[in-house]
Write a structure and sequence with these properties.
The complex is a heterodimer of chains A (113) and B (117). Chain A is mainly β. Helix content of chain A is 0%, strand content 54%. Chain A contains no helices and eleven strands. Chain A has strands at residues 4-7, 10-14, 19-25, 32-38, 45-51, 56-59, 62-67, 72-77, 86-92, 102-103, 107-112. In chain A, strand 7 and strand 8 form a beta hairpin. Chain B has 117 residues and is mostly beta strands. Chain B contains no helices and eleven strands. Chain B has strands at residues 4-7, 10-13, 19-25, 31-38, 42-51, 54-57, 65-66, 76-78, 87-94, 107-108, 112-116. In chain B, the strands form two sheets. In chain B, strands 2, 4, 5, 6, 9, 10 and 11 form a seven-stranded mixed β-sheet that branches. A four-stranded antiparallel β-sheet of chain B has the order 1-3-8-7, with no helix packed on it. Chain B starts with a strand and ends with a strand. Classes of the chains: A mainly beta (113), B mainly beta (117). The interface between A and B is medium-sized, with 25 and 24 residues.
């Protein structure tokens, strides 16, 4: 089955810096890659996703890139702000008519003022 | 308001005492799922359901049961809880691809923190 590895496990940056979180997946059939943000004590919420027919997707300060050949995808956050501090999870899924997501182990991002 | 609800939010119980965590969604979603979240392990799927009376095992189903008798409800049952089931549990739902819309957005419930002594 699918296996998703996520790095780093923790990431500390200064406000205004960029942050990059990387994930690799094992199943070449995976074609949907969402990213979830989980603030302390809250539920995970989708922040951005990408499908395998797209190499990059942006939404304001957040972008995701996908390299299908290398089987890895990354989350990029520019101009980080303290409210970006959270745990970020990547996930991978094969589109088989339902969504069986396999999550990475999470990255705790700390943005210091 | 569109939402997924879970009850209870917090539960402390003892080994072997059967318990049920309820999950309900008001978005008419076909697909529902249960995850457990443990430090360093991320979110792992326990069971999922594609529709009423259709359920299947996820990655860590041992020790759990589910049922889907109604579209909106998907309870998680621990027949004989053990300490290794101490965890944070999330229910989630999403639309079926056949009904259109943001088909891949999973909406999570607020979580249930379970402690088994």
């Amino acid at each position: 089955g699918e296996n998703v590895e996520q790095h780093p496990s923790t990431l500390s940056v200064q406000e205004g810096d960029s942050a990059v979180i990387k994930c690799t997946y094992s199943d070449s059939a995976s074609n949907y890659f969402p990213w979830y943000k989980q603030e302390l004590g809250k539920r995970p919420q989708l922040i951005i996703d990408i499908r395998s027919n797209v190499g990059e997707k942006k939404d304001q300060r957040i972008a995701v890139t996908l390299n299908k050949t290398a089987k890895h995808f990354s989350l990029h956050i520019t101009e980080t702000q303290p409210e970006d501090s959270a745990v970020y999870f990547c996930a991978a899924s094969v589109d088989t008519g339902f969504q069986k997501l396999v999550f990475g182990t999470g990255t705790r991002l700390l943005v210091s003022p | 308001e569109a939402q997924v609800t879970q009850n209870p939010r917090y539960l402390i119980t003892v080994t072997g005492k059967k318990l049920t965590v309820t999950c309900s969604q008001n978005m008419n979603h076909e697909y529902m799922s249960w995850y457990r979240q443990d430090p360093g392990l991320g979110l792992r799927q326990i069971y999922y359901s594609m529709n009423v009376e259709v359920t299947d095992k996820g990655d860590v189903p041992e020790g759990y049961k589910v049922s889907r008798k109604e579209k909106r409800n998907f309870p998680l049952i621990l027949e004989s809880p053990s300490p290794n089931q101490t965890s944070l549990y999330f229910c989630a739902s999403c639309m079926s691809p056949t009904t259109g819309g943001p088909i891949y957005t999973q909406y999570f419930g607020p979580g249930t923190r379970l402690t088994v002594l």
